[in-house]
Amino acid sequence: MSDQGTMKRDANDYLTYYNASGKVRTFSGIQPSGEVHIGNYLGAISNWVKFLDDYDCFFCIVDHHATTIAYDPARMPARVFDAAVANIAAGLDPERCVIFVQSEVPEHTELAWVFNTVTPFGDLSRMTQFKQKSQQHEENINVGLFTYPVLQAADILLYKASAVPVGEDQVQHIELAREIARKFNTRYGDVFPECQAHLTPAKRIMGLDGENKMSKSLGNTIGLLEEPESIWKKLGPAKTDERRKRKTDPGVPEDCNVYTSYHSYFSSPEDLSWIQEGCTTAGIGCLQCKKRLFKNMLAVLDPIREKATGLRARPDFVHEVLSAGAERCRGIAAEVIEEARTAMGLHRNRV
Ligand code: AQP
Predict the structure, then answer these.
(1) Alpha-carbon distance 154 to 160, whole Å?
(2) Which atom of ligand 1 is nearest to the CA of 62?
(3) pLDDT at 1
(4) 167 C-alpha to center of ligand 1: Å?
(5) 40 lines ligand 1 (CB under 6 A)
(6) Strand pairing of 6-9 and 15-18?
(7) Considering the domain 226-308 in this protein, what is its CATH number?
């Protein structure tokens, strides 16, 4: 079945792809590089769920991306499965979106090669994530780490996705993907849309250390599916406003990571006012404040964890979702890669 839609400029003059039903495509991905955490959830996955009604949605477990850092091959299948479980449990209804694994659609890597040939080396060298990851993984600065954003551009544009809901750390990559599409289109004709990043208010959730972005690889996370006792063990010692050395010292909620990164997104406006009043007058202590956060977090996380437990008991269902997703994607990918090859003259003239 052909998936052909149309390309038009949107209200902001970005070249946009509309599928055969007139819907804009969404693509986003998550690396199976560790436990899915509340930063991933608040910054990205919860936003993906909001796209389900109005967009043609594609969500990918990007395993090729995860191989750019050292990993244990024996654990990768379980990580991919866990990522699928966490995302479905968090609200990615397989009836309303496509969920699949990147390496099961080989055209991602073919398109990445094509995009390598239109991506300026200088642009890639300016990518902040490459600089950070090179420092974190000094012993393994591989070319894949450097060309990571090119593969990411291929992931998105292989489905002609225009809307890309991500956390703030990925905005630079999405802007580069748009430039790559423009470079390709200028050289070979309009094949790819000019994708745009979509952020949530929780675009950069800080880790429990209060110093770095919450990151799977930094050990500063609260897992989306983590058991309550384990979450509480982490929240108890979590850094708060340094002014509050004693319970009688007033504090400033805006200078407290527990308030800005977690309460802001898990707690009700009434609870936020209660903290504002209690913290600034030293009417409540940090422990009381954290206990309220813990209760509010569990109200959101308990149903997700319970759903995940149900999914783990039905592994065949999860694998069927991923297999069906890959099949759907391979159909679209074959058409788009053929369009790109033709535009580039990569076909034989048969007589
Ligand atoms: N702390 C965060 N706040 C808001 N959004 C975040 N995202 C990640 N961390 C935060 C967003 O989650 C989506 C999936 O991320 P990813 O797992 O593919 O990549 P990542 O950004 O590399 O995630 P991590 O946790 O930081 O992993 P490691 O440590 O392996 O590098 C993306 O949309 C991302 O923006």
Answers:
(1) 9
(2) 18
(3) 43
(4) 7
(5) yes
(6) antiparallel
(7) 1.10.240.10
Tell me, using a 6 A CB cutoff, whether residue 217 lines ligand 1.
yes
Q: Which tokens sit at 177? A: 């993907």
Domains 6-206+314-344 and 226-308 share a fold: no
For the CA of 28, the closest atom of ligand 1 is 33
Its sign, for the CA torsion 266, 268, 274, 277, is positive
169 lines ligand 1 (CB under 6 A): yes
Residues in CB range of 176: below 8 A, 6 or more apart: 119, 123, 124, 127, 149, 153
SS3 231: helix
Distance CA 161, CA 234 (A): 38
Which DSSP string do the residues of 330-346 spell out, in sequence order?
A: HHHHHHHHHHHHHHTT-
- In this structure, the residue with its CA closest to atom 18 of ligand 1 is 30
**What stretches in the chain show pLDDT beneath 50?**
1
pLDDT for res 275:
97
d(CA 351, CA 342): 17
Report the pLDDT value the prediction gives residue 48, as an integer from 0 to 100.
95
Map out the domains of the chain as residue ranges: 6-206+314-344, 226-308
Active site residues: 133, 213, 216
| Distance from residue 6's CA to the centre of ligand 1 (Å) | 32
Residue reference for tokens 């959101």? 300
- pTM exceeds 0.85 for this model: yes
Query: Is 44 touching ligand 1 by the criterion CB < 6 Å?
Result: yes
Q: Which top CATH class is 6-206+314-344?
A: alpha beta
> Which pLDDT score is estimated for 68?
97
**Contact of 107 with 158, CB cutoff 8 Å:** yes
Q: Whose CA is nearest to atom 26 of ligand 1?
A: 215
Question: What pLDDT score does 135 carry?
Answer: 94
Name the residue at shortest CA distance from atom 8 of ligand 1.
Answer: 40
Q: Tell me if 341 CB under 6 Å of ligand 1.
A: no
